[in-house]
């Protein structure tokens, strides 16, 4: 499976405003996530206090390189390794995805049109599938 050309185009077009607001988006995402799913907070008990900044950087890098994901392979591997240590499971990804998309809408307001949110949803779950597959391999080791 690959991303649609339209999604790549929209994510690239919105990469700059998302990057400019990435820390606000990730801060808001964690607020939403922990409020609606407090049990998820346990996965972050050993996380760096700057976790929202790390995620903001990852989102920005992903958006900027959505048409050349090979350059992100080391970052994806590092993320998968971190997720294994934290005991992240496949079922956590949809919960985080919903929180992230709501945060994008909350922070970007009217700029987060349905079309933009749909593209980011496709992009998020595409990356989630890559991470889930890699983490499944790592859990077997």
CATH class: Mainly Alpha
Shape: globular
CATH superfamily annotation: Globins
**Class computed from helices, strands and strand pairing:** mainly alpha
Count of separate DSSP helical elements: 6
- The count of β-strands is 0
Q: How many domains, as an integer?
A: 1
The low-confidence runs, each spanning 5 or more residues with pLDDT under 50, are none
Order of helices and strands: HHHHHH
Q: Compute the gyration radius: what is it?
A: 14 Å
Helix content: over 70%
Instruction: Determine the oligomeric state from the structure.
Output: single chain
Which descriptors would you attach to this protein?
141 residues, mainly alpha, Globin-like, 0% strand, globular
Protein architecture, described:
By secondary structure, the chain is mainly alpha-helical. It has a single domain (about 5-140), classed as Globin-like, CATH 1.10.490. About 75% of the residues lie in helices and about 0% in strands. The chain contains six helices and no strands. The longest helix has 27 residues, at about 115-140. The chain is globular, with a radius of gyration of 14 Å. It starts with a helix and ends with a helix. About 25% of the residues are buried.
SSE blueprint:
Layout: H1 5-20, H2 22-36, H3 51-64, H4 73-86, H5 92-108, H6 114-140
Brief description of this entry?
This protein has 141 residues and is mostly helical.
